[in-house]
């Protein structure tokens, strides 16, 4: 009887181990991120659901380049994000928690990221038809020190500068996964 018990237990153990194997993050999904080791204010701004782009990357607040996420486990992505923030000199000792989504991202999970000299940096919910100006306003708008004349738009890994004081740039359509960085004003106010 003891031998039969061992053999019956083995399939259950294998199924349990398979269920515990790390989930691989893939493009078209979303990840939930939480940041520890920083002020509670900064942690609250960072926390949110971030979509993994079709190219397999995640745009994050204050980083000029997206971070590769597809093909990594949650633990590996956590380490990659921590390293990116440390090497950029943004956080000294960040601790990032990553929760990978098991479902396709829906419209409610599509976001773009607002950073720099804005009142509420972090992810902003994307709405179809949203302009870049509206997206920035959804993040509280620029602070008194932020320059709307030299906003850095990062889209699909390519950066360009736009002037959100001009109507033609205000009306540019936003896209999911865009990152808008508002720089500090220069001494002349630009």
What does this structure look like?
Strand 6 (111-116) and strand 7 (122-125) form a beta hairpin. The model is unreliable at 1-20 (pLDDT under 50). This protein has two domains: 22-109, wza like fold (2-Layer Sandwich), CATH 3.30.1950; 112-190, Outer membrane lipoprotein wza domain like (Outer membrane lipoprotein wza fold like). The protein is 26% helix and 24% strand. The radius of gyration is 20 Å and the shape is globular. By secondary structure, the chain is of the alpha+beta class. It has five helices and ten strands, in the order H-E-H-E-E-E-H-E-E-E-H-E-E-H-E. The strands form three sheets. Strands 7-6-10-8-9 form a five-stranded mixed β-sheet, with helices on one face. A three-stranded antiparallel β-sheet has the order 2-1-5. A two-stranded antiparallel ribbon has the order 3-4.
